[in-house]
Design goal:
The complex is a heterotrimer of chains A (about 375), B (about 350) and C (about 140).
Chain A: H1 17-21, E1 24-29, H2 45-54, H3 92-100, E2 105-110, H4 122-141, E3 147-152, H5 158-168, E4 174-180, H6 193-202, E5 206-209, H7 227-248, H8 250-253, E6 259-262, H9 269-283, H10 294-300, E7 302-305, H11 316-325, E8 330-331, H12 354-369
Parallel strand pairs in A: 1-2, 2-3, 3-4, 4-5, 5-6, 6-7, 7-8
Helix pairs in contact in A: 5-6, 9-10
Chain B: E1 9-13, H1 20-23, H2 29-38, H3 71-80, E2 86-89, H4 101-120, E3 126-131, H5 137-147, E4 153-161, H6 172-180, E5 184-191, H7 206-227, H8 229-232, E6 238-241, H9 248-262, H10 273-280, E7 281-284, H11 294-304, E8 310-311, H12 333-347
Parallel strand pairs in B: 1-2, 2-3, 3-4, 4-5, 5-6, 6-7, 7-8
Chain C: E1 3-8, E2 17-22, E3 25-32, E4 35-40, E5 54-60, E6 68-77, E7 84-86, E8 103-104, E9 106-110, H1 111-115, E10 131-136
Antiparallel strand pairs in C: 1-10, 2-3, 3-4, 4-8, 5-6, 6-7, 9-10
Classes of the chains: A alpha/beta (about 375), B alpha/beta (about 350), C mainly beta (about 140).
Chain lengths: ~375, ~350, ~140
């Protein structure tokens, strides 16, 4: 005879009743390679030997570590390591068990944190992006119809990027085009426009998830010392990215183009837009190609995922941000399996009506991505 | 303007150096010869191209002239124009961007002599920031020690986009010297161009660079907080100048959230970043980057959570508002009074004598 | 409140833990050098399984650049957002006044005392000289 045997049972968090009944479209989920070898079947054999000998080249100081060590291994929740091995996000069955099934997720937009876009060897970069897309299609989106991938493109080689977009054009498994955000130049610059042209023509949004290494200091004031700074600084980079898209006139040239800023949150948008409006007011002669106030592009062409959701002293302050921004702009995201992910049942801790919840947790995303 | 409001302290005006010619009397023989023989001139900061109307309001400059060079105009337009009791001069010449640290130190010294002789000595309502060559902290500390005895210097001036974020320990001797002498640290918008003006590379347009100052200030706040500058120098006040402030609540929420999860990396940070910022950091009023309505601004001010943080400024002669419309909608008279007088007095300990 | 036997004394090693479910609540029992503490397995922040987090020490500092690690193994780092909780009190380190995880009183009781009174029946058949870890929920 033994005392109570301590078998572990998952205790249900006290979810708000209305949310746990909602369908959810999760606009930021990170799948992962189980091993770098996973891409080899989709790459020409010359790359097998090349990778073995030379590896990958990016403008970062370490061969196998992030320049800023993260607060948790693989940047992930410590309870998200699959029992069958592999890093967090690499096991579909575990992702289904931990995220897709319990949270009633209707669709999950996948973002791989690896890309060939910032690979310095351009041929290798192109081959890597194609391989990633082949791998996503075979091992993820075809295996669980809730999953939608982004077309990963070698954005520093726009003709190659356009070819890759056209390769997947019309395939419903791919819901957007993905670029690294720390690119060589600000992404509004004209050299990237062929990519936007192709995406807009196909009705595909561009998904801009914080990623990449471009050799520039991680802040515009130089290199910070700590991860606690870097983690926040990448969100500031996203702000500058949005400013670039707007001021360069990307949305003037491609009015139908939709851009999604992913993993930067949303509370910063009003103040960036107000600032741009004020200074555009006194410098507008420099940017005659803009036919509208900058704030209008922020509210018409750009969407923002919710994570990391902010936690002001009064949760109602978030409502004020959304009132200015527009309730159609916000796309809920967990960022599973990262350590700073948001629990759909407990993030955004302010009261929302059922109609507001439906928009934020599903319907805005359905409209942006053209999902059924 | 509401004449019932007291004359305040304008915490950001920009006297402009006409050119290196004006500094020659204040350089020693060696540097006079270097500058003259080598034809060194034109070190105005690229962050503020002075021919742009944005950086020199049309009615505050001579047509075709460099705005800010005239004391008479500053007296009339800024001091008398806004009924200000005092104004703090923040000269924006390119000292901090010079690569030759010896030249930088010489120009810094000359700038401080120039501002003393041609501005402070001629107008008792003026105060000034000390120009330093922060490229080498020893030079900067020497210059601070040289000026500390002149009570009209109230601040040490740095730029927001330098080689390292301003919490970095290379700047700490400057902070120690400033704290010793009751000087505040002024961080002004602008770049030394040691790095691209955004972490995504170089934007095409000046408008983008100007907007991007606010992200640079935020990166600096993260650095000041997490490097422990506020713990190490508890008496020191930092004033962010021409930074905007409407981004502050969103910034603090995010900084607090990240810190809670990553705290052990920087264990000397013993309070939430937002609290440290409320205690140690101040912001000049211009540009206001205002929301659409006065109600929005009132909400924003409530979200900031402190009435102590804003300092009156015109940013003369930069064009941030038309006519006399220095106040955005949403500021009560009580708040205006704090912003005009109390907050600047508390931000600049060395002003206390002047205000008695 | 009722008392529940969750383990035999000695079953949870020093530095170890056990997760049990009592009355529908999942609770983590921790052994810190022979002292036992019990916390609800739900982080007050966003509901993560807190008791599955990493045991860490407490990093403190008297000034920038100085690092000290004390209370080794006595702090619990939430598996999600990494918030640090004092296992002894349930208080979060960053927000001691506002954020606290539910803590439950834990005692070690002798088997023979449990035989008396209306407590868990299963323990009856175990040798009475054994001690048991008991949690009040």
């Amino acid at each position: 005879m033994t005392p109570e045997d301590g078998r572990t049972v998952v205790a249900e968090a006290p979810a708000s009743a209305s949310r746990s009944k909602l369908k959810l479209i999760d606009c930021d989920v990170h799948h992962a390679l189980r091993s770098s070898k996973d891409l080899l079947p989709y790459m020409a054999s010359r790359w097998h030997a090349h990778l073995k000998e030379f590896g990958r080249r990016r403008p970062v100081p370490f061969t196998a570590a992030s320049p800023y060590p993260k607060t948790a291994p693989a940047l992930s929740r410590t309870d998200s390591w699959p029992p069958n091995g592999g890093p967090p996000g690499s096991d579909l069955a575990f992702m289904q068990e931990q995220l897709l099934d319990p949270y009633n997720i209707e669709y999950a937009m996948l973002h791989l944190l690896m890309s060939g876009m910032d690979e310095r060897n351009q041929d290798l970069g192109n081959a890597t992006c194609s391989a990633i897309n082949d791998w996503q299609y075979e091992h993820w989106t075809q295996k669980d119809k809730r999953l939608k991938a982004a077309i990963v493109v070698p954005g520093e080689d726009p003709p190659a990027a356009v070819r890759e977009i056209e390769r997947w054009a019309g395939n419903p498994d791919f819901a957007q085009v993905s670029l690294v955000t720390h690119a060589i130049e600000p992404l509004g610059r004209r050299r990237y426009w062929p990519i936007y042209e192709a995406a807009a023509a196909l009705g595909l949004p561009i998904g801009l998830h914080s990623s990449g290494n471009n050799g520039h200091a991680v802040t515009s004031a130089g290199w910070c010392s700590y991860y606690v700074e870097e983690q926040h600084n990448v969100a500031l980079s996203q702000q500058n990215l949005a400013i670039s898209l707007v001021c360069e006139g990307v949305f003037e040239r491609f009015p139908a183009l939709k851009a999604v800023i992913i993993e930067a949150g949303f509370v910063w948008v009003p103040s960036v837009a107000w600032r741009l409006d004020q200074h555009w007011g006194r410098m507008r002669g420099e940017v005659p190609h803009l036919s509208k106030k900058p704030s209008e592009y922020f509210r018409q062409n750009i969407w923002y995922t919710s994570q990391p959701s902010d936690e002001p002293e009064k949760p109602e302050y978030l409502r004020q941000s959304l009132d200015w921004l527009g309730w159609d702009r916000l796309l809920f995201a967990t960022d599973y399996p990262h350590w700073d992910m948001d629990n759909p049942e407990q993030a955004l801790k302010f009261r929302m009506s059922e109609a507001e919840q439906r928009r934020v947790f599903a319907e805005n995303a359905r409209a942006v991505y053209g999902l059924a | 303007m509401n004449m019932a409001l007291p004359g305040g302290i304008d915490c950001d005006v920009h006297p402009a150096l006409p050119g290196m010619q004006a500094l020659l009397p204040y350089l020693d023989a060696y540097w006079q010869e270097q500058v003259t023989v080598r034809g060194i001139d034109g070190l105005d900061l690229a962050s503020f191209p002075l021919q742009m109307e944005a950086h020199g309001r049309r009615d505050w400059r001579e047509p075709g002239g460099k705005p800010g060079t005239s004391l008479e105009r500053l007296q009339r337009d800024a001091l008398d124009g806004f009924g200000s009791r005092l104004a703090i001069c923040n000269p924006l010449y390119g000292v901090l961007a010079i690569y030759n640290e010896h030249f930088a130190a010489a120009v810094a010294r000359a700038m401080n002599d120039w501002i003393t002789a041609e501005w402070l000595d001629r107008e008792p309502r003026l105060r000034a920031s000390i120009t330093v060559a922060a490229q080498n902290a020893e030079h900067a500390v020497d210059e601070i020690e040289r000026r500390a005895g002149d009570a009209r210097f109230v601040q040490v001036l740095l730029l927001a986009q330098d080689e390292a974020p301003l919490g970095n320990r290379r700047y700490w001797p400057i902070y120690a010297a400033a704290e010793r002498h009751g000087l505040s640290i002024g961080v002004h918008a602008g770049s030394t161009f040691r790095h691209a003006t955004t972490s995504n590379g170089w934007p095409s347009y000046h408008l983008e660079d100007y907007a991007a100052h606010s992200q640079a200030f935020q990166s600096n706040l993260l650095s000041l907080v997490h490097e422990g500058v506020f713990n190490k120098f508890p008496a020191l006040k930092f004033v962010l100048i021409e930074s905007g402030f409407t981004w502050l609540p969103a910034f603090m929420w995010r900084a607090n959230k990240t810190w809670r999860g990553v705290r052990a990396e920087v264990p000397w940070v013993d309070r939430a970043p937002g609290e440290l910022i409320r205690d140690h950091v101040r912001f000049t009023l211009q540009p206001t980057d205002s929301p659409p309505t006065g109600e929005d601004m009132e909400r924003l001010l409530e979200q900031i959570g402190s009435d102590d943080m804003l300092l009156f400024s015109t940013d003369y002669p930069h064009w941030q508002f038309d006519g006399q419309n220095v106040w955005p909608a949403g500021f009560s008279d009580a708040l205006k009074r704090r912003v005009l007088v109390d907050n600047p007095r508390n931000a600049y300990p060395r002003l206390k004598e002047a205000l008695q | 409140m009722a008392r529940h036997v969750v383990a035999a004394a000695g079953e949870i090693l020093s530095g170890g833990r056990k997760l049990v479910t009592i009355r529908g609540r999942e609770i983590g029992i921790f052994n810190l050098g022979g002292e036992y503490f019990a916390l609800l397995n739900r982080c007050p922040h966003q509901g993560a399984a807190l008791c599955k987090g990493t045991l860490i020490g407490l990093a403190t500092s008297r000034e920038p650049g100085h690092f000290e690690l004390t209370r080794r193994g006595e702090m619990l780092k939430c598996p999600w957002h990494g918030w640090e909780y004092d296992i002894r009190t349930g208080q979060s380190w960053c927000d001691p006044n506002d954020t606290k995880v539910r803590a439950y009183p834990v005692t070690v009781e002798h088997g023979e005392t449990l035989v008396k009174g209306p407590f868990v029946a299963e323990t009856f058949q175990v040798a009475v000289e054994q001690d048991y870890i008991v949690v009040e929920v």
